[in-house]
Amino acid sequence: MLDTASLKDLLLQPQDVVITTHHKPDGDAMGSSLGMYNYLVQKGHRVRVITPTDYPDFLHWLPGNPEVTIYTQNPDLSKQLIADASIIFCLDFNALSRINDMDELVRQSNAVKVMIDHHLEPEGFDDYRHWSINASATAQLVYDFITVLMDDRNLINKDVATCLYTGIMTDTGSFRFATTTAQVHHIIADLINAGAENWHIHQLVYDNFTENRLRFLGYCLLNKLVVLPEFRTAFISVSKQELEQYQIKTGDTEGIVNYALTINGIRLAAFIVERSDKVKLSLRSTGDFPANEICKKYFNGGGHRNAAGGTSEESLEQTVNRFKSILPDYKNLLIQ
Q1: Cα(237)–Cα(226) distance, rounded to whole angstroms?
Q2: What architecture does CATH give domain 4-206?
Q3: Three-state SS at 275
Q4: What is the spatial distance between Cα 222 and Cα 73, in angstroms, rounded to a whole number?
Q5: Domain range 211-335, CATH architecture
Q6: Where are the domains of the chain?
Q7: 111-146 pLDDT, tens per residue?
Q8: What is the per-residue burial (b if ≥16 Cβ within 10 Å, else e) of 29-46?
Q9: Across the chain, where does the E strand assignment appear?
Q10: What are phi and psi of 217, to 5 degrees?
């Protein structure tokens, strides 16, 4: 493993840098990646962000977005950029399986691999690691990397601040989750002082629905919400046909699971959606209930204690039934 001093020395000279993040990137993934991009270009590095897949339209306004290459849309350029890279920053993921078809390209690369992340159980592919499960977001760790480890607080300009604010805001649920500590608020204040327009960022991310997306949300809440009071659980399941009916795009289902969790008394919520290749699950929980344990043990996934995800190779109906069949094993935890 590289130490901080060695990485800092390496970054004193211009490098060919690739920044990548997990597939179907969310606000923290893109905020931390483009925050790092806008920092590194100020230091004279040649930098490109490569995402394994597309990402929501409501994140395309982020500063630096034109410099993002989407692997599935431009694999040849992506492969060349990875082959030429001397440093690869891996942000908001800690296992190379999370970058899909880019897995082996990054694994076999001779580039120095820098992992910055806040998820449990790192795989160990990295040469340098800035990691903490206590961080509210990877964007918080990128802020810490720039200001503390690299001692470059003066390079937190408006573009960097805007991206990092977006990452922290989205991964803390607009600063309402338990990970939003006093330290996070101090960081947010510093980002606002550096130029992040908090009201405008919130508007661009959360007040930017298409009509189809809003109607789909209403459809889910009216027709698809199932409440299981005996297990203090609620879930929404959606078929591929229903996604097509409302012309749902990447990012349009983000946050729907949280509505199920707002019901009084609910401790566990799930959004179960049939995609073209498999069924995907997003779980949210309150208190000490281990949503990540369910995803890891039963649905080939994992994540944080209160926010986790997984997949299923079974049909949508079979996956829903499997999810419901698990709940009795957790009843004591759910009803306490």
Answers
A1: 9
A2: Alpha-Beta Complex (3.90)
A3: coil
A4: 36
A5: Roll (3.10)
A6: 4-206, 211-335
A7: 999 999 999 889 999 999 999 999 999 999 999 999
A8: bbbbbbbbbbbbbebebe
A9: 16-21, 46-51, 68-70, 87-91, 112-117, 128-131, 225-228, 233-238, 268-274, 279-285, 302-303, 307-312
A10: -60, -45
